[in-house]
Every structure is written in C-alpha cells, then in structure tokens.
Amino acid sequence: SAPAPSLPFPFQSLGRDSELGTPLLSHSKGPTAGCLTESALTIQRISSSPGRTKVVFNLTDCIGCRAYRGPDSADVGAYFTAYFYPFKRRWMSAGVARQRVEQCFRVALVQDPLANLQEAEKWAHAIRDASVLQPGDASVGVAYTEVRRPCRVMILVNPHSGRGQALQLFTGHVQGMLTEASVPYTLVITEHQNHARELVRKADLSQWDALVIMSGDGLLFEVINGLMDREDWQEAIQTPLGILPGGSGNALAASVHHYSQ
Ligand SMILES: Nc1ncnc2c1ncn2[C@@H]1O[C@H](COP(=O)(O)OP(=O)(O)OP(=O)(O)O)[C@@H](O)[C@H]1O
C-alpha cells in the first residue's frame, strides 16, 4: 500500500473540480478542509452558512479506516471512511457510553479513478497508523491501542446462550466492528456442551493473539478449564481472554467491565 505521509497532514484539495463541479475532497456535509495530526482528525466544513463548522475527532477513539471505490463505476472518485467510537451521553440517561461515528470522505483529485483510490488509501493508511500509535488511557480503561496488530482472534459463540440470541448479537453488533478495525478472526459456533473446552485444550495457541467468548458465564468457564487442562497450562492461561455478554445474566462480563472502568 501507499506510504503514509508525514504528519501533520493537511487536506490538500479544497477547490472544485471545474469539469465535474464537485469538490475535490468532500464530506457528506459538503466541501471540507481539515488536518490530521498525531492525535486528532479535524474537519472543517467550508461554508458561509451559520452553524458548527469544525469537528475534532480524537484518534484514541478511532478503531480503523478503509479506502474504496464507490458503487458507481462511472464515478472517478474514491472514498475513505474512518470509524470512531467516542464516549457520548446516553439518550435520557446521565451515563456515557461509546457510540459509533462514521466519517466518510470523497477524493476526486484527478480523472483517473486509480490515482484517486491511491490518494484515498494514503489517507486511510495515515489515519490507521496514527490511531494505533495513540497511548492508552488508564482512566477510561482503554487497552485497545495496546493490542498487538494484527490481532488474530478466535471468537467462540454459544448459539443457545441467553434467549438464543448470542449469534444474532454477534452478527448485528460485533462483526461490523471487527471488519472496521481490520481484525482477522475465526468464528466458532459451539455445537454441544464441552465443545469449547475440548477445542481450547487441543488448539495451537500460537495461532491466536486472543480468545473471545460471546456467551453467558458458562462458556467462559469451559474455555478457562480447557486452558488449565493443557500440559502447557502455565503459558496457555496467559492467553488474553475477552468476554462479550451473550447470556441471560452476564454477571462476569458485567463485573469485568465494571472493574475496567
Ligand atoms: N451448542 C450447545 N448446545 C448445548 N449446550 C451448549 C452449547 N454450547 C455451549 N453449551 C453449554 O451451555 C452452557 C451455558 O452456556 P452460557 O453460560 O453461555 O449461557 P447461559 O447459561 O444462557 O448464560 P448465563 O450464564 O448468563 O445465564 C455452557 O456451560 C456450555 O457448556
């Protein structure tokens, strides 16, 4: 892929393409200027109308960025989309939670679609690289930036957990985030009791950077028991484990989340 430009990296093209009549770099809110620094992506809407024109996105909240061609083959422009999960106030509640924000830009510097895609890839690369380099913030329990890249994950889902919705929760909420963050994963849907325990007992753990369990408490206990059943249990039990609530009670997931805050 294209080499990352050095930072700070200002948006280069603010003019309009005279032939196409479209901004060379644009955002859904219209022609855009901005700057990528080591810690933030700042977007400035170029507009004479009143209202908020500048938005700052912290790269500590960015999980990924990808470049792509649009669906219309006649469109010479290319796109890059950055995915952020900043803390935001919950609707009708005093609490805050991470909420998804997607920022999409169109690049149309020239008439050559490939050159535009390369430019978009340069942007995506720069945003991803700068996001990975963000220091973790212990006060909000952010360990994401400390995760090794690429992070190869085995995800175990018990389809019967809770009200039988764990798999639906995975495809509806988790799968998209893994794609946005370019995390390669293998999904294992457990087929019977002790399936996960046996799998983990025999697995080549050097292939995985983390095991993620989407279930109630039961499947996590199976995985821990599987790791402890191994001859190399002292090393095996060091494998990073993740728990995503998919069961009915989710007591363990809730308390892990509570203590990580
Ligand atoms: N495909 C499967 N069919 C039947 N049992 C399974 C299957 N996969 C896993 N199990 C077993 O189901 C048990 C319960 O699973 P889990 O804790 O994930 O769900 P839950 O009991 O609904 O959740 P909670 O603990 O929140 O009430 C586990 O101990 C596991 O051994």
From TrEMBL:
<dbReference type="GO" id="GO:0012505">
    <property type="term" value="C:endomembrane system"/>
</dbReference>
<dbReference type="GO" id="GO:0008481">
    <property type="term" value="F:sphingosine kinase activity"/>
</dbReference>
<keyword id="KW-0418">Kinase</keyword>
<dbReference type="GO" id="GO:0046512">
    <property type="term" value="P:sphingosine biosynthetic process"/>
</dbReference>
<dbReference type="InterPro" id="IPR016064">
    <property type="entry name" value="NAD/diacylglycerol_kinase_sf"/>
</dbReference>
<keyword id="KW-0808">Transferase</keyword>
<dbReference type="GO" id="GO:0071363">
    <property type="term" value="P:cellular response to growth factor stimulus"/>
</dbReference>
<keyword id="KW-0547">Nucleotide-binding</keyword>
<dbReference type="GO" id="GO:0005524">
    <property type="term" value="F:ATP binding"/>
</dbReference>
<dbReference type="GO" id="GO:0016020">
    <property type="term" value="C:membrane"/>
</dbReference>
<keyword id="KW-0472">Membrane</keyword>
<dbReference type="InterPro" id="IPR001206">
    <property type="entry name" value="Diacylglycerol_kinase_cat_dom"/>
</dbReference>
<dbReference type="InterPro" id="IPR017438">
    <property type="entry name" value="ATP-NAD_kinase_N"/>
</dbReference>
<dbReference type="GO" id="GO:0005737">
    <property type="term" value="C:cytoplasm"/>
</dbReference>
<keyword id="KW-0067">ATP-binding</keyword>
<protein>
    <recommendedName>
        <fullName>sphingosine kinase</fullName>
        <ecNumber>2.7.1.91</ecNumber>
    </recommendedName>
</protein>
<feature type="domain" description="DAGKc">
    <location>
        <begin position="148"/>
        <end position="261"/>
    </location>
</feature>
<dbReference type="InterPro" id="IPR050187">
    <property type="entry name" value="Lipid_Phosphate_FormReg"/>
</dbReference>
<dbReference type="GO" id="GO:0043066">
    <property type="term" value="P:negative regulation of apoptotic process"/>
</dbReference>
<dbReference type="Pfam" id="PF00781">
    <property type="entry name" value="DAGK_cat"/>
</dbReference>
